[in-house]
Amino acid sequence: MDVRRRPVKPLYTSKDASAGEPLKQQEVSSPKASDALPLPLYLTNGLFFTMFFSVMYFLLVRWREKIRNSIPLHVVTLSELLAMVSLIASVVYLLGFFGIGFVQSFVSRSNSDSWDIEDENAEQLIIEEDSRRGPCAAATTLGCVVPPPPVRKIAPMVPQQPAKVALSQTEKPSPIIMPALSEDDEEIIQSVVQGKTPSYSLESKLGDCMRAASIRKEALQRITGKSLEGLPLEGFDYESILGQCCEMPVGYVQIPVGIAGPLLLDGREYSVPMATTEGCLVASTNRGCKAIFVSGGADSVLLRDGMTRAPVVRFATAKRAAELKFFVEDPLNFETLSLMFNKSSRFARLQGIQCAIAGKNLYMRFSCSTGDAMGMNMVSKGVQNVLDYLQSEYPDMDVIGISGNFCSDKKPAAVNWIEGRGKSVVCEAIIKEEVVKKVLKTEVAALVELNLLKNLTGSAMAGALGGFNAHASNIVSAVYLATGQDPAQNVESSHCITMMEAVNDGKDLHVSVTMPSIEVGTVGGGTQLASQSACLNLLGVKGANRDAPGSNARLLATIVAGSVLAGELSLMSAISAGQLVKSHMKYNRSIKDISQVITSS
């Protein structure tokens, strides 16, 4: 078939021709991507290629460092901003060179007004080249309108494979694993994805918690387009968490559990389970347990045991609020209030009510024993009973909230530091001089001085509230996760003051920790889960103690304090001996090359 190009409009006028000027067509050069720099083309290409891969490598290294250091990726430094600008510039150039520049150079190669293609194979090549760039690609580039070519049957083209990029330069996306699903499950998944079936209702509709979690997980992957391949689903009893531990589960997180000990406390040995992902923590606590063991063990004392809840009520005047304060704090009325409170549970026993006024608002801090339960729900039910009773006596009382933050739960507060909340425990030990030198690798005098300047003076300089210690929250969090406690209550449970003093003519070390707000339980919540229940059983405090209600929870609190004592002793010794960085580089740093791991995967 004969394919002809439309004649190009002459770039000279008839007036110029009549004047005898030479009839010479003026060449018009379109701007090219390679004109970005006044350099030869091969040098320009090499420069932009080098800039592209160098900037990509720099940004990937910086992103890997941010991920390791838990720095948000959207926090950009000036160097990263300049790198991104350079990356954009190089991408624009490369796209222009291989895209628009190629079309322009292809079209402009001919200087004649028209050309003829008589060969059928040559015509096929032109049509195929245009089909790769999309309809009217060349015409759009030149700014003209070309009628569409006649429909022809063309042999199917094999799409070009994208260039492979080294895995060290780009992140390999995680594939979305599509499990084998039945037709019924597929239908339910589509319903969840389309928003017709609420995700939270799957358990009640299906009557199968495992199946509901599986369908929810698959629907989540399809909605977000993100893979949950590393989040396990099998091997967990989802029935055990229904309605009490977690809603809308899609799997469970695996946290390794290590054992520190034996911890010799009050004449008994305990192997302390610690769930953590922080390297060196279990090893350090274990060394502290060894130092305590060979020195004769540690002793603990339970100072008080009472969970708190503080509602806030409001009156029209401060005078009326004060009247209720006097009524509540009057010993003559305590028996009546206690009777109303205690009927909520056979374990709840009201211990006292502490009031505070802010204008016409009254805060009443109820304290009660709760048996072997941590007791937040128990004390809340008792408080509600008392409020109902007071409402009949003071009808103008406006109950603002069952919790007014004077409790204070899951927040650092001076009232917990001073008055205590949950279990208040003090734990002590005398570490012999030879143990300090051989096991802890330091000196008694050095430990005493470090404790004074770091845990006491340094914390005071920082304005610490209950934080007069080295790392009590590390041990508390690890034991809490292993034994099914509320990890958020680590905030007040980690209130601790660590004291160190030279005794026996300065030869031995007396060390103690005082923790006024250890909030633990051995029944309810996460303590009933299989893994956490096993850890409680290891400590000998699983479930409720029928003979002495509350004794298991109190024993667990002393074990937490004893573990904190071991952790404080070991960390302070490491800092005193200058071993902190060395030990963390040995136990808390991966020896694997992340880039090699990514490449091998």
From TrEMBL:
Membrane-spanning residues: 39-60, 81-103
Record carries keyword Membrane: yes
Gene Ontology MF annotations: hydroxymethylglutaryl-CoA reductase (NADPH) activity
Pathway: Metabolic intermediate biosynthesis; (R)-mevalonate biosynthesis; (R)-mevalonate from acetyl-CoA: step 3/3
PANTHER family: 3-HYDROXY-3-METHYLGLUTARYL-COENZYME A REDUCTASE (PTHR10572), 3-HYDROXY-3-METHYLGLUTARYL-COENZYME A REDUCTASE 1 (PTHR10572:SF56)
Any Gene Ontology biological process: coenzyme A metabolic process
GO cellular component assignments: endoplasmic reticulum membrane
Biological classification of the source: Eukaryota, Viridiplantae, Streptophyta, Embryophyta, Tracheophyta
Protein family per UniProt: Belongs to the HMG-CoA reductase family.
Pfam family, one: HMG-CoA_red
Membrane-related topology note: Multi-pass membrane protein
Gene3D superfamilies per the UniProt record, alphabetical: 3-hydroxy-3-methylglutaryl-coenzyme A Reductase, Chain A, domain 2 (3.90.770.10), HMGR, N-terminal domain (1.10.3270.10), Hydroxymethylglutaryl-CoA reductase, class I/II, NAD/NADP-binding domain (3.30.70.420)
Name under which the protein is recorded: 3-hydroxy-3-methylglutaryl coenzyme A reductase
Cellular localization per UniProt: Endoplasmic reticulum membrane
Residue stretches in coiled coil: none
CDD domains tied to this protein: HMG-CoA_reductase_classI
Species, as recorded: Solanum tuberosum (Potato)
Keywords, in A-Z order: Endoplasmic reticulum, Glycoprotein, Isoprene biosynthesis, Membrane, NADP, Oxidoreductase, Transmembrane, Transmembrane helix
SUPFAM superfamilies noted in UniProt: NAD-binding domain of HMG-CoA reductase (SSF55035), Substrate-binding domain of HMG-CoA reductase (SSF56542)
InterPro entries: HMG_CoA_Rdtase, HMG_CoA_Rdtase_cat_sf, HMG_CoA_Rdtase_CS, HMG_CoA_Rdtase_eu_arc, HMG_CoA_Rdtase_N, HMG_CoA_Rdtase_NAD(P)-bd_sf, HMG_CoA_Rdtase_sub-bd_dom_sf
EC number: 1.1.1.34
Predominant location: endoplasmic reticulum
Gene: hmg1
Function: Catalyzes the synthesis of mevalonate. The specific precursor of all isoprenoid compounds present in plants.
Catalytic activity from the UniProt record: (R)-mevalonate + 2 NADP(+) + CoA = (3S)-3-hydroxy-3-methylglutaryl-CoA + 2 NADPH + 2 H(+)
Region Disordered, annotated ranges: 1-29
